[in-house]
Amino acid sequence: METTAIAGAAMMMTQAKTQEGISMAALKQAADSQNQVANMLAQQVQQLQPDPSYGFSTYA
Fold it and tell me: What is the tens place of the pLDDT at every residue in 2-59?
């Protein structure tokens, strides 16, 4: 193999790894955002107090 071919292959591998790293960072950011939303909803559910004047019927 020529030196230029080896250098080209190494450059392509480096670019692929960089792209993989960017993709993983985007996935982590999306997962973090989903966790934040889930935590916010869980806090809101805990803060909700049932209204005692509201009657719930079990008959349907």
Answer: 888 888 899 999 988 999 999 999 999 999 999 999 999 999 888 876 666 776 666 6
**Whether the predicted model's global pTM rises above the 0.70 cut:** no
DSSP secondary structure string, 8-41?
Answer: HHHHHHHHHHHHHHHHHHHHHHHHHHHHHHHHHH
Structure tokens at 32: 């973090």
Q: Which amino acid, 56?
A: F
C-alpha torsion sign, points 38, 43, 46, 50:
negative
Name the residue type at position 37. Answer: V
